[in-house]
Amino acid sequence: MIDSLAHSAMTFWVLALFIIVADSCVLLAEGTFSYTQTRSGLLRLRCRSHPFVILRRELLCSVVSYPAMAFGLCRVTECEGVSATALLRDCHGRRDLNILTICAAGSLTLTVLGPVLSLAVGNGYAFLIIWLCCYGLAGISLCKIWPRRRALHLKRGDITTIALELLFCPLLTANIWKKLAVVNVSTISKRSLVMRTDENAQMLLARMAENLAERGTVSASTEDRAADRG
Length: 230
Prior knowledge:
Layout: H1 2-5, H2 9-23, E1 25-28, E2 32-37, E3 43-46, E4 53-54, E5 57-61, H3 62-65, E6 72-77, H4 84-95, H5 98-112, H6 114-121, H7 123-145, H8 156-168, H9 176-182, E7 185-189, H10 190-194, H11 201-214, H12 218-229
Parallel strand pairs: 6-7
Antiparallel strand pairs: 1-5, 2-3, 2-6, 4-5
């Protein structure tokens, strides 16, 4: 069946890699940014001065920006939200799930090595071997997520959706961190955030203003400039 689907060893795996990349893409809403935690225990915000914008939303391709890496999403506002300490606590919780990083990296590596295995044993056998391995990685990921669902702020519906996606295509285990991030977007005040980042506050605020302006959020960028002057 696979031989009839693909005319060469590369066709199927190029399509599989395209599906992973497409699934990893997120359109970030107004004021939403991605972040990770540095080794020094501070937050590192991904904030580009000139983002790639689609329909006034910034495009984030997590498989490129955070390949098999834990990250989170936060919405920055002028109002009070969760503290930066809460975001750091979430980061510490993700560090306890390093097995997810291993599973994501394994799934991505298997997909990339698919063409080599296809040339060695044929498309059908390569598909079967890698598909079963990725199902195993997906099962391990779900087994690790379920006991930590409350710490990850996941509802049963969220876990069910993730499980169905991985059941349909286990190769998407490569994007397991992205799937966890999009269902838990925290709202944080700008003041609290800039105090716990690993870069200069004024430079970060200026870049955030440019980022919002590129997205077309004129009012937000104007408020930022006014705050900087004050």
